[in-house]
């Protein structure tokens, strides 16, 4: 029962459309602006960077908070059971953002929430997430494409995890293989959600950011 409650709770928290609520508080409908997406990038188009940063932080916390809460239940499960529970809760939070109950299952792309989930799964995902975040920042600063940075960081994440498992003496792939499966599936979901951005990147019509102060 605890297992089910935690998963449902994570999904409901993940479903909270912070970007839409922030825009609504300013008298704007985010779904009718720019790309129509409810994430931080579109909030930046509608309201500027300050509110986009707030949206990104809140969306990230939607993933991190459930992971931290689940961490308190570690002693109630075997290591194998706990690992699956942790992953299930994280995936539920991400799915909540992508397919929110409150918006008829039409949500965002899951980047910030996925980052929150990864940061909250200590130490296996946290280290990899920090590395991928550094790559994300570098790509944004270099090419000014949020979508490109998100895609590259997502692809990098499972590769970094494999390298970490190989390099860390106490990380055994036999014990951690569920982490690798999830690390491959989550970025795949993010990339699928960016398929429109990928088409625009190839066409040269994708919007850049940070071209002028806001």
Report on the architecture of this protein.
The chain is mostly helical. The protein has one domain. Helix content is 72%, strand content 0%. The radius of gyration is 17 Å and the shape is globular. The termini are far apart. The model has no long low-confidence stretch (mean pLDDT 91).
For the sheet with most strands, the description reads: none
Q: How many domains comprise the coordinates? A: 1
Can you write the helix and strand succession as a string? HHHHHHHHHH
Poorly predicted runs of 5 or more residues: none
Q: Percent of residues in beta strands?
A: under 5%
How confident is the prediction overall: mean pLDDT?
91
Radius of gyration: 17 Å
Report the strand count: 0
General shape: globular
Overall SS class: mainly alpha
Helix content estimate: over 70%
> How far is it from the N-terminal to the C-terminal residue, by CA?
48 Å
Number of helices: 10
Structural features:
mainly alpha, 72% helix, 214 residues, single chain
Give a brief rundown of this model.
The protein is mainly alpha-helical and 214 residues long. The protein is built from 10 helices and no strands.
Question: What is this structure's SSE topology?
Answer:
Layout: H1 2-14, H2 18-25, H3 40-47, H4 49-71, H5 79-98, H6 111-120, H7 124-143, H8 146-167, H9 173-193, H10 195-203
Helix pairs in contact: 1-4, 1-5, 2-3, 3-4, 4-5, 4-6, 5-6, 5-9, 6-7, 7-8, 8-9
